[in-house]
Write a structure and sequence with these properties.
Helix content: 25-40%
Order of helices and strands: HHHEHEHHEEHEHHEE
Distance between the termini: 47 Å
Strand order of the largest sheet: 3-2-1-4-5-7-6
Shape: globular
Radius of gyration: 16 Å
Number of domains: 1
Largest sheet: 7 strands, mixed
CATH architecture: 3-Layer(aba) Sandwich
Length: 211
Amino acid sequence: MNVMRTMMIQFRKPSGWLGRLAGLSMNVEHAKLWQRGLTHIAIEPEAAVLDVGCGGGKSMRILAHAAHHGRVYGLDYSEEMVRMARRVNRALIHEGRVEIQHGTVSALPFPDATLDLVTCFETTYFWPDLPGALREIWRVLRPGGTLLITNEAYKDARFARRNRFWGEWSGIEQLHTPQEYLAFLTEAGYVRVETTTAPEKNWITALARRP
């Protein structure tokens, strides 16, 4: 395995010193993606928010700033990223505004109907069971709660070569079209489902709500 592939595969589940480099990269390179995704929603100051796949943890600062009277949770199945995210958010954790846990989207460590917003930045295409994960997120959202998914790749013929290369090298399970996201979310029980794409970048945002 060459150096480039060794680095790229770290974005699936970062570990060791290369994983820490990947986490630092996420905290810088994904900033515009977070900002674009968050323009689609309004976060209430008292909101309870979960960031699934929080990575290096910088996205949680943005969420905590918006939910400044609420509570923000981070979850990642990479122990390396949990440690990094806790360091990045040390002050917010000390204030009791942020909590970061090790875990998986297939079994979220939250009671039913406890969260107002769940965000998923650059994570869903690494999930082996996307429909099951969407149902699990539905479980922890309160009625009227929102799910926000933002990724920098979706299935599109115009980007087939790029996406095939990226998918093979970074361990992506599968890319989906906007129509497939609509179908998955609707079948999982969400309402007011919508997708927005940035075709010039191959970015996609999906928004859905629990009834």
